[in-house]
Amino acid sequence: MNDARPELAMLTNGQAVRRPSIPVLSFEAFKQAILDGVAARQRVSALFGAPSPLPGATRLYVILADDEQNLLFAGATDIEGDSFPSLTPRCPQVHLFEREIAEQFGLRPVGHPWFKPVRYCRSWTGRDAWDRPPDQPILPAVGDFYRVDGEQVHEVAVGPVHAGVIEPGHFRFQCHGEQVFHLEIALGFQHRGVEEAMIGGPSPRTIHYAETLSGDSTVAHTTTYCQVVEALSSCQETARAQTVRGIALELERLANHVGDLGALAGDVGFLPTASYCGRIRGDFLNMTALLCGNRFGRGLIRPGGVGFDVDDARLAELGRRLDAGEKDTSVAVNLLWSTQSVMARFEDAGPLPRNVAVELGMVGPAARASGVERDVRRDQPSGIFCFSHIPVSSCETGDVFARAILRWLEIQHSISFIRDQLHAMPSGAARVPVKALAPGSLVVALNEGWRGEVCHVALTDAQGRFSRYKVVDPSFHNWPGLAYALRNQEISDFPICNKSFNLSYCGHDL
Amino acid sequence: MIKVILARLQQKHRTMTYPDGAPPPLPDRFRGRPVIDAAKCPDGCRACFEACPTGALDANDPARIDLGKCLFCTECAHACPQKAITHSNNYQLAARNRSELIVARERQAVEVVGAALDAKLKKLLGRSLKLRQVSAAGCNACEADTNVLGTVGWDLGRFGIQFVASPRHADGLLVTGPVSKNMELALKKTYDAVSDPRIVIAVGTCAISGGPYIGHTQVNNGVAALVPVDLYVPGCPPHPLTILDGLLRLIGRIEDGVRKG
Question: Would you say domain B34-91+98-107 falls under CATH 3.40.50.300?
Fold first, then answer.
């Protein structure tokens, strides 16, 4: 099927393969495979380090997604020594992945144009890529920032503690008057060490790590984790479980998209939509709670299926609430588009051009708003999305308005999708037993969370335990997009630009 | 403009009457305060203890659940061969002292819930409480369900409680998350920036004990390791009603389910 890169292993979303089938290439071939793949419109879903069987070496794995063919390509290379030539100058979308590899494994990507830590923590190997003394604490966001010098150029520092009820992060603006020349975002404050703790699992805590990787994406991350476990144990969840998962994923999207539109309205001082959407968001969260008792879907998604079954009365109630939610949302959101003062603030604010979105490897609504039509539900479908399709929406302008109206389009599609599923709930068990995990395997699972592609990659050891578990939250791809979108904007537009992306801090910091 | 007015009519008045009226309905599958029928426990059975992901159950006396560590995941209830553990729909979980979060066999009948601040603090803060929220490695679920209290449905402002943008304007902190090492300094500095007298509210199981992250070298196992805590609100995340109940008890606006002042 793919003649250009026969050297990479071909697999599909949620398919477990034996690790020997993943080719271990020379670094040159590994690098060329990535560059060729990206040139052929593939994108880097994951690039990460793992222990190598060679003493003292680190094995790098790459997962390329080919959205046009519904395929994934995987390859590996062993790095001996403490450095490797950086790919970032030729492939910008790997820049954070390379910094992460440096931080976790102490490998320096030589030639990386902006070589700084990602999460400000100790490496897993004891080797430090920045030669920081082991007896001194590593302080988050401490270090050099990109700096613009000149008359009347000034620096604005914000965070980690922000003015609102939100997660911590540090933003450093280089400004000339009101105009932002450059924004650098330093994160890591939320680092909880999840990937490290996943090693040796699954343990009783593993599912709870998945549920709290990013709280507003509980369903997306937990579904992805469960698909990893199910693939490794050759367990096939029932169509009924897949349908409930799909409903929960779209309810999660609805709650967050509605909340974001309300918050965007609030940030431009348009209080009607801000008030209504704040409340309606809660209605959608309560629909998830109707399924499982928890507003964020905790306890709902479990390996082998779902932790809570549905009955006709519950589905009917969900349908009634969905109708009411649709009506309320429609009235509240449509006020935005007919209010000139709102549109004046949304239009042309924080534009992200299409070519930049592609180069940075953006995913989710932030990519689609810039005309990059990527959606895992269509391109690499799993579960219910193999059988029931959701139209992919996209815009061209890449500004705050595009990211706002895209959410409204997706809200409407998600509501129709859920309504269809409510009337076509398959019979069968809610949950089937899960067996032991296959040893010596690799699996990649992808889902389209409300922010974009959620990617989990698991490697198992000879006993079927996780020897490496890589999580890529969509925010990991998208934070640089926000920084880019701020260029030449007024600093007072930062809140609406930030909210229009609404990225996860803990999902990035894990 | 006419559209704005019509929308206002369509959206109706939505602020709940609680605490004057009944609390908003909870979902039927809501998992509140666990109830243990210790009489059913077979001797030497540790099934619930072994199933718990966070060590919320006591190895020697499984009929004790520490709500400060509990994720309300029901693994213990599923593991119990006698079905001795059930989750009630009681949302009133907040407590002033860490030890009051332990549901134990000798305390089954007496459900300890958060008491009000002492008279002096209550006089100062009871009618106007400004809080600075600090997320310290919270997964954003606790943050979201704290934030929701500010929406029109809950309208926290009617109790004089408000989230403010600066610790200098605040009477206290509401902290979420296990407090990562990387947020330690920021939390301490924010606390120091609040003038005395000040209070600290720990919302969510992570903020109380570290939650799923108990024992990780990257976190501090909760807020109390760094600053003194005046109110603990358990849950993963706590339901907004649980948080509101805790806040209203703290400022003495409700007591034994009855509205005060």
Answer: no
